[in-house]
Design goal:
Two copies of one chain form a homodimer. The first copy, chain A, is α/β, with parallel strands linked by helices. The first copy, chain A, has three domains: 7-87, Arc Repressor Mutant, subunit A; 91-157 and 264-290, D-Maltodextrin-Binding Protein, domain 2; 161-262, Periplasmic binding protein-like II (D-Maltodextrin-Binding Protein, domain 2), CATH 3.40.190.10. Chain A is 44% helix and 18% strand. In chain A, the strands form two sheets. A six-stranded mixed beta sheet of chain A has the order 4-3-5-8-6-7. In chain A, helix 1 crosses helix 3 (33-47) and helix 1 (7-19) crosses helix 4. The relative contact order of chain A is 0.14. Chains A and B meet through helix 1, helix 3, strand 1 and helix 4 of A and helix 1, helix 3, strand 1 and helix 4 of B. Chain A binds a DNA duplex through residues 6, 8, 21-23, 31-39, 41-42, 54, 56-59.
DNA sequence: AGCATGCATAAGGAGATTTGATCCATGTCT
DNA sequence: AGACATGGATCAAATCTCCTTATGCATGCT
């Protein structure tokens, strides 16, 4: 592998060869004529022969220079084109990894607005409970449900992972749900759901001591909610995601009381990429767009 | 003209992409792994996306990296090939500009030995009295007759531009040339030749005051000598160049006295190119090869 | 478990690169 | 012709990139 001459000097040569002028090359490269002169001298010493013939008011390529120039320009054209394209590739595709709950209950319905506002950005959403590692996987941003904000990443709270009991209208009727304590009579979709006990306590209902096992349904409320709609029991879910179902009557939220255990749905991405245009565009769209979710603490109407 | 990312970082990327290893790329580039890591980081920030996926014991190209790598490698291959070839082009052809006298009387006869010793170097000799300007014309070295050693160039004395009277055997006979003063009776090829008067003075002959006009036959003794051989008169020439003619009897050098006015035949080339292999080779050949010309001060036998 | 491999990071410094001022030669304009 | 404009070369000084050393961290192998 033969060592190349200093690349800076090659770039200078390429520009000078195209312009046949040190001064104009310097302008293009954003440096002074003196610097170009220096770089050409470096390269001439490395190559071992003059690259230009210094004529009074102009320069000409020497035999050696003429031999080198076309190929060098070709190489630089390739590089310029390649990196120009990369900008399109990089800026033109936004890759989002989202927890399934958020993906299906909010993103799917709203992402169209982002695409409308940013038609030049293609969007790829991957819904997975898996916590992406930006170093290992190729995602630009992620939407995660968590309470621990990892260092090195930027975090924007989109929505608190609040929870409230919900069930089908039929069950409300069947079990005569009038006050929080009544819920204990309703079959639970997830038995011994810690969220339920936490919520009951908040509602002033004394509950049997719970196993207090680690637990999180964050990002996987879909099945829970689907079962509740089907009338199979009581589900603890995040109200904001089911405003539609409540509005349409498929689901009933019998009490305005809302529990919260500190978890939240966050938009996150590597600090280093904070200024990437597409990430900026997405952040500047989704944070205001979820504003409503954050402020409506009580029942969504 | 879109500005390219730092070329150093592109080169690092190219090497890493080929090796799929920071460490091995660093070895190839002759730097440390830390430096490569730094360069890749730079480029990733510029491109706006990771170029490699950091997996436990190895790295993989990201989508972006994979898109860039082939073209970047192509560009660098072009550059490597181009500059590798240039070495051949540059080192393989030695361009000599020589004053005609030296070219025809010494170089023509001896350059074959140089080519024998350096078969990989093609030689082009241009005989011209014109003093080349290395900045404007494409010559590697020049052989000039001068007394003023210009700055910025390296000068090697090959031969002092001495002079002595010579004439054909017939004229020696005809004019009864026995001692220096006798030469005044012989027709001069160049009338009032300053070299003749200088030489006569040196030989102890008082001469009429000379016009003392600027004069130099340096590098154009050919015609002078040819006329002398043809018997048309007395010529002042550099003995070293006509040893053959004297030996063969075509020309007679009647006196051992040698004049010198400070001029010399020099090999010269730009200081900056002092280390060019072919120039080095030529210098290392011609300086010893002309050793004999310099040391034999008197008549050549 | 302990070691080897491979990349990331921080601080510091050496060196390359750039600049700014100036010089020089030549062509052009009045 | 003389003054000016153009284009490159040169030098010293300031700058800033780039590299190295040292170290940390995660992972896979023995």
């Amino acid at each position: 592998m033969s060592a190349l001459p200093p690349l800076t000097s090659i770039r200078a040569f390429e520009a000078v060869a195209r312009h046949l002028s040190f001064t104009r090359a310097a302008e293009e490269l954003g440096m002074t004529q003196a610097a170009v002169s220096y770089q050409i001298r470096i390269l001439e010493e490395r190559v071992g022969a003059p690259l230009f013939l210094r004529r009074p008011r102009q320069i000409a390529l020497s035999e050696t220079g003429a031999r080198l120039a076309p190929d060098v320009t070709k190489a630089f054209d390739t590089l310029r084109e390649t990196f120009a394209d990369s900008r399109g590739l990089v800026d033109g595709m936004l890759s989002i990894s989202s927890v399934p709950t958020f993906a299906s209950h909010w993103l799917a319905a709203n992402i169209g607005l982002f695409q409308l506002a940013n038609p030049e950005i293609a969007v790829r959403v991957e819904a997975s409970p898996h916590l992406v590692d930006f170093g290992t996987e190729e995602f630009d941003v992620a939407i995660r449900a968590t309470s621990r904000l990892q260092d090195g990443l930027v975090w924007h709270l989109l929505l608190k992972a609040e929870f409230a009991p919900m069930l089908s209208p039929r069950l409300v009727e069947q079990y005569q749900v009038r006050e929080p304590a009544d819920l204990l009579r309703v079959p639970q979709i997830t038995p011994d759901d810690p969220w339920l006990y936490a919520w009951l306590e908040l509602a002033g209902v004394s509950v049997p001591p719970t196993p207090d096992r680690p637990f999180s349904r964050l990002g996987a409320q879909n099945l829970e909610a689907a079962a509740a709609i089907a009338g199979r029991g009581l589900a603890m879910v995040t109200p904001a995601f089911y405003a539609d179902d409540v509005a349409s009557g498929r689901l009933v939220r019998p009490f305005d009381i809302t529990g919260w255990d500190g978890h939240g749905y966050y938009l996150t991405y590597p600090e280093a990429r904070r200024n990437s245009p597409k990430i900026k565009a997405f952040r500047d769209w989704i944070v205001p767009a979820t504003e409503g979710l954050r402020s409506s603490q009580g029942r969504s109407e």
